[in-house]
Write a structure and sequence with these properties.
Pathway: Cofactor biosynthesis; ubiquinone biosynthesis. By secondary structure, the chain is α/β, with parallel strands linked by helices. It has 12 helices and 21 strands. The strands form 3 sheets. Strands 1, 2, 3, 9, 10, 11, 12, 19 and 20 form a 9-stranded mixed β-sheet that branches. The N and C termini lie far apart (about 45 Å).
């Protein structure tokens, strides 16, 4: 095996959160390596990524600080200025409006592939060493960890000695297992079905979400097609069997069922892209820190997508690290310093747990057809919508402000 000189940080996983972590550490002057199983596919404007995120203002500010947000917006990012949430059983509506909240926009809808593409190339330009394609096969936290380092063993035979390892390798994180951190999993027995939908009327830069007995259905605004046809990205949480059935039906049948489920203000649904679905679960690591290993993103916390907070929580992990490791000159801070990471771990565990269980509670209340919740939940939405301080507080929490 070949052994490299001491690094400050090794990041494993080059998804949105991992690539942002590598770029953030590099921008702070650390010597960084990024390990990834395969090079990300180049983003293509003509082939939108089915996986999109409702990007919060605090994370847009983070990416602006890292020098990539302008390039993302220039490529394709759809601002949204309003949100409308209602229940299929009736009752009132919960509404968020940018003007009333004193904002130009509430957030942006951005493709996963575009974010990864821009972050990956920015990390290269920032001097991040890349080991790709490669993967972690071992983690040595023996005597060297007591001396301020840990060794990461790669399938290629390379051994990376570093002060800190960042596990950003997803919900099934290999590094989390090697570090001995447990992450209990709760399966919702639902899948999130995603697709792009063309519709008759403009989306009005609005996110629409309707609660149904099987799970919430969201229409997220997306830039019009090149020939001017309005379109949105949908995320439809469904029982597993129902999701499998709807993946198998033809486009006409799917549009019919989607239109009946949405019953929304976008007019006739005219076309649909290919469809995909992914399992939904809650998974929270017992800790996001063990020695000189930390967990970020889905490796630390997987949550229900009904509030669109998954990637936002992951990037807040990075913003928190960036804050505690800020320093004027290189070499003044050990990125694996226990007293700093312990404080960060407490903060992130609290935020992740509150968010995960809050989303789960909402899903349980709204995604069923029991008599009492059905009678009450629409009225509760309407009550919240008529209380401006509550509406503002809910939005500020989601926006990370």
């Amino acid at each position: 095996m070949s052994r490299r000189g001491m690094l400050d940080v090794v990041v494993v996983g080059a998804g949105v959160v991992g690539a942002a972590a590598a770029l953030s550490f590099a921008r702070q002057g650390f010597q960084v390596a990024l390990v990834e199983g395969r090079e990300p596919a180049p983003w293509q404007r003509e082939a939108p990524d089915l996986r999109v995120f409702a990007f919060a203002p605090d994370n847009a500010a983070l990416l602006a600080e890292l020098g990539v947000w302008d390039a993302i917006v220039a490529a394709r990012a759809q601002p949204y200025r309003a949100m409308r949430v209602w229940d299929a059983a009736g009752g009132g509506e919960l509404a968020f409006d940018a003007d009333r909240l004193g904002r130009r926009e509430l957030g942006w809808i951005v493709e996963n592939g575009l974010l990864i593409d821009r972050l990956w190339h920015a990390a290269i330009a920032a001097g991040v060493q890349q080991y790709c394609p490669d993967r972690v096969v071992g983690l040595d936290t023996g005597p060297t960890s007591d001396e301020g380092s840990v060794t990461v063993e790669l399938a290629s035979g390379v051994r990376l000695v570093t002060r800190l390892v960042v596990a950003a390798d997803g919900a099934d994180s290999r590094l989390r297992a090697l570090a001995g951190i447990d992450a209990p999993r709760h399966d919702y027995h639902q899948r999130g079905l995603v697709a792009f939908i063309e519709h008759e009327l403009p989306h009005q830069a609005t996110c629409w979400q309707r609660f149904l007995p099987g799970g919430p259905l969201a229409f997220l605004p997306f830039p019009d097609t090149d020939d001017g046809r309005p379109r949105s990205s949908i995320v439809w949480s469904l029982p597993e069997d129902e999701a499998v059935r709807l993946l198998a039906v033809d486009d006409q049948a799917f549009l019919h069922e989607l239109g009946r489920a949405f019953d929304g203000p976008l007019g006739a649904l005219r076309a649909v892209s290919r469809r995909a679905a992914f399992p939904l679960r809650r998974q929270l690591a017992d800790s996001q820190w063990a020695g000189r290993v930390i967990l970020v993103g889905d490796a630390a916390h997987a949550v229900h997508p009904l509030a669109g907070q998954g990637v936002n929580l992951g990037l807040r992990d990075i913003a928190g690290l960036r804050a505690i490791l800020a320093r004027p000159l290189r070499g003044e801070v050990d990125p694996g310093s226990p007293h700093r990471l312990e404080r960060w771990n407490r903060q992130r565990l609290s935020d992740s747990a509150v968010s995960a269980y809050a989303f789960e509670a909402l899903n349980r209340v709204f995604s069923n057809d029991a008599v009492v919740p059905t009678l009450l939940r629409g009225h509760l939405l309407g009550l919240a919508g008529r209380a401006p301080p509550l509406t503002r507080a809910l939005w500020r929490h989601a926006a990370g402000l």
